[in-house]
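Help: read this over?
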Amino acid sequence: MLRRVTSLTVPFSIALSTCVAWGQPIPVNSAKPVLPQVKPNNFEANQPVAEDNKIVIPVPLSADSQRSALANIDKHVASQVDDLTEKLKTILPDELTILTKTSGWKTEDQQALVGALRAGDRTAVYEAWVKGNPQDTAGAELAARQTDVKSILARLGQDAEKNKAAMKQNVGEFDAALSKIAGATPAVTDLAAPMKTLKTWVEARKLIDSATPGKGPVAKLPNGGDVTMIMDPTLPVGTAIVLNDQTMLIGNEGGNRTLSIVKGNAAEALGLPIVTGTPLPVLEGEEVLDGVLIINPASTKATINYAINGNQYTAEPGTKQRLAASNKAWKIDFDRGQTFGPTSYSLAPGSYHFRPTDRGWQLFRLKFEVTLDNALNNQEFNFIFQGDDLAIPAGGARTLVSDYPVVVKFDRGNGSNFVSKSTPLTIGNLQIGVNATDNMWDLFPTNENRREVSKLKPFNVDGQRKP
């Protein structure tokens, strides 16, 4: 801490005064941030004029969007069932082909088999076959299972129109029935891909149908871990509809993408640069834009005694003293330590810090130069710096130079979380990214100017996590 003392050799600690009196220390971090003056256009006075930083704001599932999504899914499901039906016709034997295997049977046994096949009755097919040829139980079992596959597929076609709630169960039964004939019918493996697609659409339908319209959050993306995301190729990229706290519908339009259901971070899936590091803290106090700022860095680990215009102060490690802009000159006197003796400087407006040298303590002028790195972001980043409205293009960077600690003010992504952040850096990079803890824009100090590699695995264009 800083305080005025009666002797340079008496250290002490006391809270700083908040008045701006000549010769008194002015606290740097004790008041609320003061927003810059703005042009008298359509903005309220004392409000920032920087553009909002766009972040995909998810909307709650409305009744209309739910109906639209379900109708679209039903259309796709019906089309997929039709495609499976056509593919199955080329794989499974038809009635005439089956009858060629009943040569030598009694007429009444053949007729019983035909009736069972047309009824789609698996048990009746098995019994008719065994009666017609008691020695061929394997053939009877295969015919019965093939009949079961056709019967369930026919039921799926009916459910797609009249009993959609039963689709998920019937798709599961159909998949199980296919697996039972796969050994004797190798061509069934050709249905694996369309079956996977059908199951995904049906699962998506269940998730959307079970959601309650209007109950999702509207201010931020779900966080607190991975959520279920339905990557819908029929919705524009950037669409984000909240189904519930654990499920979202994400637009994935473009190319030959198919619908998929994945687990992951919602912001990441939307193409936002997720960062898992520690962001800059929010500025405490007001921004320094004029006058003199004297800093005793924490790294000195030493208490420094000095006098300003004859008034004596003690600065603990990690403290700052602001001298207000004044028509009168500011003069600092301090002892350099050991036998180096006292020294004196006139202080022009700007920032200064104490530093040990081979000639004792010295006071150096500071220049702050910080680069905002937007290289991993696919959109423009808007902010305010020293009252100016600035922007960094997608994939770009901008260096800020100041005589005082750099303070960046920006909207975190929803038009209401406007923050001021101050960097302790004099030279360095700040990465622009989405904070993984709340999915909002933030600034992150980089490690030796190297961008942090997110611990979250990115998605590829099909919405699947990369290995």
